[in-house]
Amino acid sequence: PPSAEPRSISIFGATGSVGTSTLDLIRLNPLAYRIVALTANSDAAGLAKLAREFSAEVAVIGDPAQHQALAEALEGSATQAWSGPQALLDAADLDADWTMAAIVGCAGLAPIMRSLLRGRSVALANKEALVSSGALMIEAARSSGATLLPVDSEHNAIFQCLAGASYDQVQSITLTASGGPFRTWTLDQMRVAGPAQAVAHPNWSMGAKISVDSATMFNKGLELIEAYHLFPVGLDAIRILVHPQSVIHSMVEYRDRSTLAQLGAPDMRIPIASALAWPDRIATDCAPLDLATIGQLTFEPLDNERFPGPGICRQAIAAGGGAPAILNAANEIAVAAFLAEEIGFLDIAAIVSEVLAGYSPQEPQSLQDVLAIDREARVHAASSVRTRN
Ligand code: NAD
Ligand code: MG
Known about the structure:
The chain is of the alpha/beta class. The protein has 3 domains: 7-150, Rossmann fold (3-Layer(aba) Sandwich); 152-266 and 285-303, no CATH class; 320-389, Orthogonal Bundle (Rna Polymerase Sigma Factor, Chain: A). It has 18 helices and 11 strands. The strands form 2 sheets. It has a 7-stranded parallel β-sheet, sandwiched between helices. The chain has a 4-stranded mixed β-sheet with strand order 9-8-10-11, covered by helices on one side. Helix 2 runs parallel beside helix 3 (67-73), helix 11 crosses helix 16 (323-339) and helix 12 (218-230) runs parallel beside helix 15. It is globular, with a radius of gyration of 20 Å. The termini are far apart. Residues 152-154, 223 line the site of magnesium ion. Magnesium ion is lined by residues 152-154, 223.
């Protein structure tokens, strides 16, 4: 109802693909939301422009070297300019009903944990943070009573299909996967693929890192780990199915063999809108689902030989301890090296496997443990990159 107080919102990673999609939805529903904090890594001008448009209370730039640029760009506005990693945590302390976690990579983990410990509703796009911290993040949410709202389209689909059902009613969960730009490519073709080809996703428009993850299908593996923590049905009950049209976003099969699926155009604003308004619904200007025009929905099994990523991720969960954090860190370093044209496409999975095999730290007991494992794995991965270029 229009008379209700606007929902107060902070967006971490406001200048990125998910962040700007979130702001697009707020533009459509301006009276329903009020912006507390917006954050970005280094684009001070882009961040300041958004902060002015949405009258944010605070704008935080992660890179302290950009502080002056941000402060100047915000001069005369009502928005405060903050900078540096500590300021990201301070922003998470500000009172906001709902927080979008859309920083890419483990860099977003500490602010998410802070928001969760404050008991906030956190819309989780940043899958790397959950992959690295796993049970610790789920426990942080549980202990404070915070709500974790999955934004990743597959997990948002599962969340909607579960609709509060108890997990003992669930037989299995199927994560659908588009197969990415190299779905039909041979290994020899992939060996010489470059960044421009890898980021050209057939269905979704996304940031560079997740686009490369979609090409290797490590994205689906990270999503497997994400699903394992969000939806405790057991690893063996979570499956992957290649579905090139990206219309069915995922499915939940119940014990009675009734299966529920969530469908929609491949547009991240749809799952973001679901998390933004939850448990209500808001109108969007997204394209309606036009199945007559799409004509056919097709399905195929995952080819583990050409796409070893999901299998490596499944093994990392089974190995437990810090394995998923190591895997995530190695993948982040390898993807950055691939985007910088320092290594080949197939080197990404090779580096992740090598770093994972290298050592096995104990189960992290704290955020500090996770961050220490992450740092060490990055050093190993960087040296593995150097041996290959
Ligand atoms: P992006 O690269 O477009 O944006 C990333 C955002 O994080 C930017 O605002 C950037 O300034 C900020 N950032 C990057 N590094 C940072 C650092 N070190 N410190 C502080 N801020 C930093 O990425 P994206 O595609 O929007 O993805 C964001 C997250 O959402 C990722 O974890 C991704 O896996 C997940 N996700 C994205 C999509 C999608 O469609 N783009 C879909 C599902 C999940
Ligand atoms: Mg996804």
